[in-house]
Request: fold
Amino acid sequence: MGPLIWIGRGARAAGFAAGWVAFTLMLALASRLFGWGPGFSDFSPYALAAIGLCAGGFAVRRWLGERGPSTPTGTAGFPSGYRVHRNHRKPSPGASLRGLAGEVRAGAILFFRGTAACNNFLLLSLTYFLGIGLSALLFRMTGQRREAKRRGLPGAETYWKDLNLGKRDADAYFRPF
Amino acid sequence: MNPAYILGISCHYHDAAATLLKDGLVVAAAEEERFTRRKHDPAFPVRAIGYCLENQGIGMDSIETVVFYEKPFVKFERILHQHMEHFPRGFKTFQMAMPSWLSEKIRFRSLLKKRLGYRGEVLYVDHHLSHAAGAFLPSPFEEAAIVTVDGVGEWTTTAYGTGKGSDVELHKEIRFPDSLGLLYSAVTAYLGFSVNNSEYKVMGLSPYGRMERSPGGGNANPYYPALRQVIDIKEDGSYRLDMDHFLYQHSDRMPSDRLCRLLGGPPRDRDGELLPRHMDIAAALQMITEDVVLSILRHARAVTGSPNLALSGGVALNSVCNGRILGATGFERLWIQPSAGDAGSSMGAALFAHCAILGRPRTYRMEHAYLGPGFDSGQVAAFLRDRGIRYRRFPSREALLAETAGLLHAGRVVGWFQGRMEWGPRALGARSILANPCDPDMQAVLNDKVKHREAFRPFAPSVCDEDADTYFECDSPLPAPADFMLMVYPVRKEWRARLPAVTHVDGSGRLQTVHRDRNPLYYDLIREFGKLSGVPMLVNTSFNIRGEPIVCGPGDAYRCMMGTGIDCIVMEDCLILRDENPDDMWDSEAGAED
Reply:
């Protein structure tokens, strides 16, 4: 299995590099459209930005506790532990090529997962601080009394609240709210 | 006339599952984790749905209605409310939660279209109503009090109401963040166990601690009064948590520093040593849980006047508490669905849609939990032959019983793979590991070599229903949940020394009662074993590798045996011995995680 694993890893690295190149070209094209940056005369800042976004995304995923850069497993490597159920059917000749193609694809997906994570982080941060933040301000101005009423004041006779949830008009069940 | 198929689905939080009804009868149900081999898999249950459809030989075009087990937008409202209330402390959990909410959880209909090509009718039933329906509608009761207790649904964490005929109603609730289930999970996390996965381990640990509530005296539990400070319990069972002790509203951690100080130190590391104080904390938590649940049940009994109780929600899986219900609350009869947690809500939602929404007759009564995939002996033999696995076939049913009983009596650990897979978290004689309960070393052998788990964990027995009273001090008549291994009772004193493998440190056992009309082969095996040993009882533990779900198909079972210390598997009428297949042996413990 030794050489096969290395071939698979090489294919995955090639896929990662291909993703990097593609994203670099996209950034260069976008900057040319908006008139920012050096455009097609110098790709190095775009390449740095692309790898930076990807690395930032991996850092965000790590911070959020996601298990490393998750990759779809290609066929070149096998999961640890139990290897295969012994199967007397021989693999088809095309299987190795398909496996390699899978590893290249996996590498590219790995790159874009990083950039997507970074992108999500930025957008969600904006939503959090603007959307949730402003709502929180309003809530704090008016919400304290509502909160106490919702949970019941400590020392009340009972904390049971009316629910009265039973059969309703059929329309109510077509709604996800 | 074409049969009416209703598909119930639960997913996205934990324990995704699917249930299929045909003309109001449950014909198939399974948890997604059994197919994906990821424990408590919350993902959209494509494979479980696929199994349900294949079981009936239909496609999604035959489904009349899909029913989802909660109202996702109401739950989303609660999540956003939490973030508003605790801004900016929830920044990290907001980042963690929002991608899945925005891409999947509030887009259930599009998910159905994309994953299954389904464009038909979709119904949404409130979370606790799904729980309540899952408890009452499959029960034998025509009317009953219903109580649901879990972590949290949309807003409700605890509720009670009534069921009558086909109708289910919930009258009162306690709302998030006050949650008995989350209190249990927070202390589970403090004790170093994984949340939504290992609460039952804390239950199993509790008898090692001091179980005396009153202060003073040698056996008084010092953590009971401490934990009582974090929860205000009223006479009617309603309760309120002091949220200064918990962080789950805005953090991925559950216990706060204040709770840690109250409990005498930082949380235990996952691999850290279990000290007597941890056992006392587990015991205190168990006592508080019982205080709350039994108070709620007494109140529900008084308010509803019904002698019947249908109980649901994740907390209903606390079988130690369940064993006390009939003696301490005034209820005379009890029913708990074997999958009382969120997976079982798929069944509840489907049955609610059939009975309450579509107004069809309530015809289904759950008598057994064997609703998952089954494999006949031809399929098993073909699997083994294809892989060159050495095995032999029993010539007759009698030979199977005699040889298996002989292996068990000789101290072998036997994997038992028969019929349709169980529904719910317990193995009930379809996907079980069996052993001799009279062997004093068996608990250690099973914990160490087979299940690779903590030494304090007890094992549960299977016993023929008519023998339960001989060996256990159980309620009379024995409630139906004992069939699903949901009741813990004391082992009779005269038998404790003879049943060391299934008697817990406090003398209790979580028994499964086996009925001949529901699982004749398993019943006869227990009887056959009884002829050899004098005690018709078997250790029954779940057939799985540590950290994995219970096995589903022959491949999973074979893989489990070859990676653990199980001596052999009896798979339909085939016997596979571990030692005869040395090439396939592997170490399941390397890389295993709870």
User: Anything to note?
Assistant: Chain B touches chain A through 70 residues (CB under 8 Å).
